[in-house]
Amino acid sequence: MKSYKMITLLAAFASLGFLANSIQAEDAKSTVNSTDESFVKSASQMGIGEVQVASLGVRKGARADVKELAEKMVTAHTALNAEISALAKSKNVAISTVTDPSDTETLKDLENTDTGDNFDKAFLAELESAHKDAIALFEDAAKDSADADVKNLASKALPELRSHLDMIQAAQKK
Description:
Elements: H1 2-27, H2 34-60, H3 64-90, H4 101-111, H5 117-144, H6 148-172
Helix pairs in contact: 2-3, 2-4, 2-5, 3-6, 5-6
């Protein structure tokens, strides 16, 4: 009986060791450095929030140009999110599909903003802020990324992100 308990105990320890090694292997699975991995995760998270905010703009925007801009943002950021997801998959970077808590708060605030001019102003201000943050993030990756694919994606996305910011700022002046 004692030898059975000892064998069971040894098997349990061996299983724990195997499990620990499996967990470490999962953590080390990414094929990019931590800075590039952080960029991919952040860009993905920003993109999810951007599509959700833009979708709200499509639904609640008062002015036709604001709704049209929101539709462009949904289309463009959905496409960029697909590129980021493909890159993440190819580099074994686990990305979240859950909305970031700060984006959830932003969505709640915008949802609770009156429709009409008040909503349009708050919506455009949020888009402007989000695009400035995204441009800074993508500029850093385009300049400093160690991975050629990450650097390429960031560099390729920057002109469109800057164009979005220009369109947002033009809409704010109307």
